[in-house]
Amino acid sequence: MERPNVLVIGAGPAGSCAAAMLAKGGLSVQVVEAQQFPRFVIGESLLPQCMDILAEAGLVERVEQAGYQIKTGGTFRHREKTEIFDFSQTFTDGWDYTYQVMRDRFDQLLVDGAKEMGAQVAFGHRVESVDFGGDAPTVVVASEGGESHTVRPEFVIDASGYGRVLPRLLGLEASAGMAGRTSVFCHIRDDGELALDYRRISILIHPEIHEVWYWHIPLHAGRSSVGVVGPDSYFERFGGDHEAALRTAMSELSDFAQAFPTPEFLFPVQRKTAFAKAVSRMCGPGYAILGNAGEFLDPVFSSGVTVALKSASLASRALLRERAGETVDWEQAYEAELRRGIDVFKTYVNAWYGGTLQRIFFAEQKVESVKRKICSVLAGYAWDRDNEYVASHARVMQALGSLFGGEGASGRLDQ
Ligand SMILES: Cc1cc2nc3c(=O)[nH]c(=O)nc-3n(C[C@H](O)[C@H](O)[C@H](O)COP(=O)(O)OP(=O)(O)OC[C@H]3O[C@@H](n4cnc5c(N)ncnc54)[C@H](O)[C@@H]3O)c2cc1C
Questions:
Q1: Which domains does the chain have, with CATH numbers?
Q2: What is the mean pLDDT of residues 363-386?
Q3: Sheet architecture: strand order including 155-158
């Protein structure tokens, strides 16, 4: 397609979901994806909020029928203390389950759905440059064979994840304001050895270093995703040996050491560093930046795919309204609205690393109404302003910080 209504860069969840919604809404959509699918990406644990957006995009039935591992909540553990959040116990009315997915299959399934709705998809094609100078954007796309093509869409959606096409080309990169953290991760053989419920994600905290935490994401029979996240300094002793880093980190956690004394890694251990990203703006004349191409904070609450899908929903709605003749204030309808939820997650991520949330989770006394409101955020309902833990997130977390200790929303632990 040389002159589509919309060109979408990247076929991850943000790009495919936007392509599906826009094609369903009657626009001509060209997706350009640099890689051949299926391809591995980290980000396997969804939140219930994803299901609402997948339903809006007409993609939820596919996901429901794919046979993924069901996810009904999260288990948090530190030493002998365990706290369980169950998605049936949220303040917000919503889905009480979601899935843990292998992203190669999941992303393929979403992009196939977008194709069925009429989007064209070119795999193995990389967007090299975008020029907004003329009456329509000029996008240069290079094929794997080295040929260049020019596409002149009316609107560009950048869903290129860490490719960060428009932030780089337009000079929009900004500081995410998060401490430098690293993660090493892999899939392991797992026949149910961990003594925790496999219908939940487990987030396990290092016995001594509260900023180091692990995930256990059951994927399907015989395979789980495991990873460890911590300050860059925690990983320095391993140099470039990612497998040694993951093996040693796993051996320092008794749950993992007992269940997986010699973990069998199913592919080379991966490492991701400097994963927090931000932009100074998320939209402008002729473009919107979605998902990780815009902002990504931290994996602790599995919010990445949720934010990616939410960005697709908000941008698609705004674009379809505009095409129907409405004047749309993109900064309000898209950027400000998306940032409202991102800011909520940011407060919770900072309160996690600052110690406040961990103290609340593992406190002796539990207040059920507080737990339900926090559980809503953990389910991804971070745009539900009826929830005061969303609407007044920073103030509430600051107040909880003074009650429970830690540094509230500021991200520093009061040792
Ligand atoms: C350690 C870690 C653990 C995580 N765990 C979770 C989790 O459990 N749950 C969760 O929800 N999130 C998690 N995330 C976040 C999640 O990985 C991302 O938020 C999510 O994948 C973002 O989706 P996206 O569609 O924006 O981008 P992506 O899924 O990255 O897709 C972007 C696509 O754009 C393509 N592309 C890039 N450049 C170009 C170009 N120039 N031209 C054409 N195509 C291009 C890429 O090939 C890619 O396919 C985790 C992140 C990290 C770092």
A1: 6-71+94-174+276-340 (3.50.50.60), 181-273 (3.30.9.100), 348-404 (no CATH)
A2: 95
A3: 120-123, 29-33, 6-9, 155-158, 287-289, 283-284
